[in-house]
Amino acid sequence: MKQRAPKKCHDCDVPPGRFHQFGCDVETCALCGEQLITCPCVYTLSGLDPERLHEDHPDVYCRGPNATMRARYAREVAKYGGRVPWSGDSTGSDLCAELGWYVRPVGSSFVRCKPDAPGAVPDVERLSERARWDPALRRYVVRLRLVR
Ligand SMILES: [Zn+2]
Ligand SMILES: [Zn+2]
Question: How far is the CA of 108 from the centre of ligand 2 (A)?
């Protein structure tokens, strides 16, 4: 299979191996593997419920996390090796490649396909159902099914 050329981040334009610009919507949270700009970690680490911010902490809801909260988040991220740099591809696409999880566009939706099918892209959506972010490994791993 042909190796795809490394790409710059499509939001903030940094090359692979570099940190995203602040506020980039592609950056992955090192703690939970979600999109950093929407993940709840900066709130939950400070004991705040992100769903109730507008009622419990209207100041934080309006102005965003304060310096103490951001510092607490940064310290936690540092324990796991710091921020996640842009890898050249969507986070989790390495696991999709290992497992052969690919989809291709058909009409207005995506269907599962072979990795070498025309238009195939890593099926990163499937990560949310079958994989979990491992902060120590700094990558997605297959979620083990509980055997009862
Ligand atoms: Zn970026
Ligand atoms: Zn997070």
Answer: 30
| Spans of all domains in the chain | 1-88, 93-142
Cβ partners under 8 Å of residue 45, min gap 6: 69, 72, 73, 76
Tell me, in angstroms, the distance from the centre of ligand 1 to residue 14's CA: 6
Measured in Å, residue 105 CA sits from the centre of ligand 2 at 29
* Nearest ligand, measured from the Cα of 9: 1
Q: pLDDT digit string (tens) for 11-61?
A: 999 999 999 999 999 999 999 999 999 999 999 999 999 999 999 999 999
Residue 112: partners with Cβ closer than 8 Å, 6 or more residues away: 101, 102, 103, 123
pLDDT digits 0-9 by tens, 105-133: 999 999 999 999 999 999 999 998 899 99
Distance 30 CA to ligand 2 centre (A): 7
